[in-house]
C-alpha cells in the first residue's frame, strides 16, 4: 500500500527466538512460573511475558481480558512448537554452524553503524550474544524444515501447466501492475515506534533526513540498503522497502504529486522527495521516495513467460510446504509429552465462574 502502514507486533518473534534457544530452567522455578512443559523442558511465564510485552508495546489501547488470554495462548503455542522443532533437530544432529551464524549476523548488522546496531539490539532487549543465539535457532529450524519438508517437494512441468490452465484468467491483467519500493520518513515521533536511526522529531528534522537519504541515492548507494537502515515503515523496511503488487488504478487514486512522479518512472528509477499524507486527514505527516522495480503490462501473460512459470512454481511450493509443515508440527505434538498449564488454568477458572 502507498499510504502509511500501522505498526505491527512483529518484534515478538525475536523474543520467542531468544527464549526458545536458551537452556533448561532452574530447579528453583516455582510451579506458578511454569506455563508449559515440552518433554520435560519448562517454558516459563517470564518468557511469555517478555514476548507479550514486546508485541503490545506502543499499542494505543489496552487489551481486554479475553484478548489478553488469546494473545498469551498464541505466544505459548509458538514457544511449544519451536521447542519441539529444536528437540527434533537435536535428535537428527542438525544445527547451524558458527560460520553460518556469523555470516547471517553480519548481514543483519551491515545496514547500520556500530552505535545504531547496538541501539537496535537494546530496543529489542537483546545483547549481541542473544542475537546470535536467535540466529542459530532460526537457521537450525530452517535446516530441519529443508531436510524434512522442502527436500521432499517436487514441482513438475505438468504441475505448472495444470495450474496455469486452471487459473488462466489470473494471468490476464486488466490494467498495468507496478512493483514498487519506498523509503518513508515521518515527522511524528510516536507514529512508527522505536529503533529507527536518527528518528525525526519534527517536520524540519524529517525533511533534513529525507534529503540526506535522497542525496545518498544520487551518490549511487543501494535503495534497499538505505530502506532497511532508515525507512520508518515497519512493514517494508526489513525487505528493502518493497511493496506488494500495486494496480495502476490504485496509483492514480493517490495525491497528484505522488501519482505523476510514479507514473513517469522507468525501471530502477526513483522519484524525488514526495509528501507523505495521512490516509484519513490527507495532511502531510512526513516524506517518502519511491523506486520502480518492475512493471507488468495489461493483457494475457502466457505460460511461455519465465516469470509466469517461476511465480507458479513458487506458489505451488509454498502451498505444499504450508500443508506439510502443518502436518509435521501435528506429528511432533503426537509423539511428545506436552502439558500446557496455562490452557488448563483458563479452563479451570472458567469452570469456577
Keywords:
Chitinase A, domain 3; three-stranded antiparallel β-sheet; 353 residues; 2 domains; Triger factor/SurA peptide-binding fold; globular; 9 strands; 13% strand; four-stranded antiparallel β-sheet; 13 helices; alpha+beta
Provide structural commentary.
The structure is a single chain. The chain is α+β, with helices and mostly antiparallel strands. It has two domains: 12-152 and 321-352, Porin chaperone SurA, peptide-binding domain (Triger factor/SurA peptide-binding fold), CATH 1.10.4030.10; 175-297, Chitinase A, domain 3 (Roll), CATH 3.10.50. It contains 13 helices and nine strands. It has helices at 12-21, 45-56, 65-91, 98-109, 114-123, 128-148, 157-166, 203-218, 223-230, 248-252, 256-263, 306-334, 341-352; strands spanning 34-38, 41-44, 172-173, 177-186, 246-247, 274-277, 284-296, 299-300, 338-340. The strands form three sheets. Strands 5-4-7-6 form a four-stranded antiparallel sheet, sandwiched between helices. The protein has a three-stranded antiparallel sheet with strand order 2-1-9. Strand 6 and strand 7 form a beta hairpin. Helix 1 packs across helix 6, helix 2 packs across helix 3 (65-91) and helix 3 (65-91) packs across helix 6 (128-148). The longest helix has 29 residues, at 306-334. The protein starts with 11 loop residues before the first helix and ends with a helix.
